[in-house]
Design a protein that fits this description.
single chain; mainly alpha
């Protein structure tokens, strides 16, 4: 069951995105929805950032700053991150002109809002392998539509 609480303002999205980048976001706020909110904020408002290239560093640094570790079993996951960036970019490109928090809410109400959405494309063993955590692995069920 989903526990997503809808965003109510763009300020919330800014705090998540900037909090990730400057490593001040409380760890309890770093949820599935927050991951997508940060990506959407970067894509929409930080156009100088090449999100696919720089997001890994943002997440790794954030994990370490909040007491986490980036190992073969925890922390940063390359395949999940890159797939989520692709999904967010595609979702944003098809979104109507509206406040960013509304786009985030719409994304979270879609299949992407379900934490297991990636299992439509990858088998669990492949997605959660050390190899997929370290580097991009193509889906083994079906290709991503974006």
């Amino acid at each position: 069951m989903r526990t997503f609480v809808p965003f109510t303002s763009d300020e919330e999205i800014v705090l998540i995105g900037s909090g990730l980048v400057d490593r001040t976001l409380p760890k309890t706020v770093w949820t599935h929805a927050a991951h997508f909110a940060a990506v959407l904020w970067l894509l929409k408002n930080r156009t100088e950032v090449e999100v696919s290239r720089e997001m890994p560093g943002f997440i790794r640094a954030y994990n370490e700053a909040t007491g986490g570790a980036n190992t073969d079993t925890s922390g940063y996951h390359e395949t999940i991150t890159q797939a989520s960036i692709r999904a967010a970019r595609d979702f944003l490109s098809g979104a109507p002109p509206q406040p960013l928090f509304m786009t985030c809410n719409a994304l979270m109400c879609s299949r992407l809002g379900e934490p297991d959405w990636l299992l439509d494309y990858w088998t669990r063993p492949r997605l959660f392998s050390v190899e997929a955590r370290r580097a991009w692995l193509e889906p083994d069920i079906r290709s991503l539509p974006f």
